[in-house]
Amino acid sequence: MAFGKGHHLHLIDGSAYIFRAYHALPPLTRKSDGLPVGAVAGFCNMISRYVDGNGSSKDAPTHVAVIFDYSSKTFRNEIFPEYKANRPPPPEDLRPQFPLTREATRAFNLPAIEVQDYEADDIIATLAREAREAGGRCTIISSDKDLMQLVGDGVEMFDPMKNRQMGLAEVEEKFGVRPDRVVDVQALAGDSVDNVPGAPGIGLKTAALLIQEYGDLDSLLARAAEIKQPKRRQTLIDFADQIRVSRDLVRLKDDTPLPITLDDLEVRDPEPEALMEFLTRMEFRTLTKRIAERLKVEAPAISADMAASDDHAPPPDAEAAAPFDHTAYVTIRDEAVLADWLAAALEQGFVAVDTETTSLDEMRADLVGVSLGLAPGKAAYVPLGHVTGGGDLFGAAVRAEGQMDVDRALALLKPVLEDPSVLKIGQNMKYDMKILARAGIRVAPIEDTMLQSYAMHAGLHGHGMDLLSEQYLGHIPIPIKTLLGSGKSAITFDKVDVTEATRYAAEDADITLRLWQKFRPQLHLAHVTTVYETLERPLVPVLAEMEMAGIKVDRDVLSRMSNAFAQKLVQLEEEIHHIAGKKFNVGSPKQIGEVLFDRMGVPGGEKGKTGAYATGADVLEDVTTLEDSHPQGALLAARVLDWRQIAKLKSTYTDTLQEAINPETGRVHTSYSIAGANTGRLASTDPNLQNIPVRTEEGRRIRQAFVAPEGKVLLSLDYSQIELRILAHIADIPALKQAFREGLDIHAMTASEMFGVPIEGMDPSIRRQAKAINFGVIYGISGFGLARNLRIPRAEAQGFIDRYFERFPGIREYMDQTIAFAKEHGHVRTLFGRRIHTPEINARGPGAGFARRAAINAPIQGTAADIIRRAMVRMPDAIAGLPATMLLQVHDELLFEVEAGAVDETIAQVKAVMEGAAHPAVHLDVPLVVDAGRGANWSEAH
């Protein structure tokens, strides 16, 4: 009978099933040959339960199909090459399982459909349309928001993750518009997951409001000039074409050419012989036995020795993939319940831990509560500092009822959180360790899911919990803004209702535990277990101690500098106005452009989309070279650059650092991001102490404010030219290696090799040119860039680079080999095994050059970062008996605070650790050399 009225089509999003199954189960291999089959086992579990459940359902389908993506490339990549380019490639152990899931589908006697050049969503859209037009119904079994545009007129969705139907109301709740306008909203908001650009600065909520007001996207773009908000109006005008391209990307193609018809999709019972053959071949002993019992056939024999270990793998919808049921989370309000949870953690040997506080500043935040996770779906929140009231001028906040005594709760938590037999699992664990340390609890040992992701996925995406949850668990966490609000009306977490706080906080622990179960076994598959265990995880407590120690800052010195900078700014403004012949706002790039290029007639001005001239530092530096043809313009540009530098020093450092001084400690406590840079370099924030300029006198003066307390000294130990040394080793350059072994002036030696001049009596300008090339090559500098740095003609600069590669051919060979490796494998590696992904390495256009330069530099900079990490991890033991504290890391430099009488001994110990940090993992062909300095302040020490 032809498909029509009374028929019901089920379309299963097979690709989503695969990834859900893969992320839900630990790695699983077929014992006979080691073939990965974990995702296949989970997929078969889900398909089996689907078949069982719908066979007994009153609303059972009459027709069904499982839909797959053919590949990662589709017709959308022709429209927009960057579409989904930011997505990581499938894990290596998942790739061979894709074809097996198609086999599994057919083994269950279900149609498996995929079409080259089209996505699974396009196939689903086409079949849903055909079913609707034939008079039947269609249910799409998926949680993919992109499919919501299809809902209506007999088409609905079922979310298997949340076990709920999704119709018109759910679509409007998600997108703020009815399904036929979802595409318009998505085109405006874009999609960071799929790399759909959309309209910059316009999010989902704003997009929905605009479509509600103007009706549809075409009307909105046609009437964009009417929009009152200037920024929004200009965005829609400037990016209209990009928005239309985005619409083409998100709109599902419902006329996909299909190899089947609806009539081919009629439900058929599994054929036991075919299904048993497949399950037996996969060596799924438990699953084979269970399905054989359901089909009332005898299960083929699979010996225990040959069986894949699906016996110990929970099904995806059982423990590891338990649904996120917020109502199941527990609020722990008394000692007996908390004691039971802690006893369970002690017995199983691991627990996920998260803290809720009043601030992101760990040194000033108050502890509000602690959440615990024992298993997927089993999590609890211990409220400790929630308050009520205090919302007006007269009402004082009071402690909310139903909370344990803080001291008693911490006393119960402390033994387990400090127990060496219980693993504490966290996401960005350094934050929680510092919060709990201030409460008297030294958390150890730890695992960190953020760092596990970083070790495996650096360069592919961020490593925040929300992103990881959505990408690897298929779950969108509760947004913190829904609890705290935003802007001036935002509240702190202690004012959140305890019931709502439990849903949010316990979910964090639940997600963290699931991510750990997913990531931990994958580290060895990605060959980064050593990186995680030696460079990432052990660095967490080291950085936590450094950050809590902080560094003493002299407020009076900063105040005097701020005043001096303010006076200097006034003087520079007066001089700039005099040169220009008029007063204007020196802080306005637009006005600077008008003065330079319109009023003063300096050539080369280029206007951007807003109609204003570009006046960035690179533009102004070019203008300063026009001393002969436009002396006044050159002078004005130079003075504006001076003004900007002083203004930045004042606002970013001398003013801001005064505010950053902790009133309790009198010190500044920066926070280091371990996963902040793809190459392994640490990033310093709140405040950033790594970017204080040291090349100008004013910048160097700021370091004078960082001081040692009375009776102590600051020590600075800095690797000498470490990246050049690593380049000499990696690229195997005999001349450079020999120079480093002999302790020669490497820049003078390079100049001598390149220009044929003796080292003795060398012209400083020639050495300066060689130094610029030495450091420039590490970063893949171009002839144009070198010309700008040295202020010489571009042809001359390119000649220097060509001569450099002729003299040191190994460097060019290293670059070519590195780029070739990156293109083939999608990543590069440091000498210590750190993997740095290079997703843009095969891109074309303006970004291609940057991607290649980044790939060339990453093994060098990353190896340098690894070396200082290794040194930092070893440092606490090395200085344990000395009156010395490690305070700061600034790229290749470590700063210590030491009692005056222990300076020499500390220098000796620290130098030994730093200079031997590569061993025994890597034997470098060049020595690592560390320079040491001491002083009453950081400027003197460095």
Automatic annotation (TrEMBL):
GO BP terms in the entry: DNA-templated DNA replication; double-strand break repair
UniProt catalytic activity: DNA(n) + a 2'-deoxyribonucleoside 5'-triphosphate = DNA(n+1) + diphosphate
Domain DNA-directed DNA polymerase family A palm, residue spans: 699-902
Coiled-coil ranges (or none): none
Keywords per UniProt: DNA damage, DNA repair, DNA replication, DNA-binding, DNA-directed DNA polymerase, Exonuclease, Hydrolase, Nuclease, Nucleotidyltransferase, Transferase
Transmembrane segments: none
Ranges of residues in domain 5'-3' exonuclease: 7-268
UniProt-listed Pfam families: 5_3_exonuc, 5_3_exonuc_N, DNA_pol_A, DNA_pol_A_exo1
Domain 3'-5' exonuclease intervals: 329-524
Domain of life of the source: Bacteria
EC number: 2.7.7.7
Entry-linked SMART domains: 35EXOc (SM00474), 53EXOc (SM00475), HhH2 (SM00279), POLAc (SM00482)
Leading EC class: transferase
Keyword field contains Transcription regulation: no
Keyword Hydrolase: yes
Stated role: In addition to polymerase activity, this DNA polymerase exhibits 3'-5' and 5'-3' exonuclease activity.
Subunit structure: Single-chain monomer with multiple functions.
Name the record gives this protein: DNA polymerase I
Native organism taxonomy: Bacteria, Pseudomonadati, Pseudomonadota, Alphaproteobacteria, Rhodobacterales
Gene that specifies this protein: polA
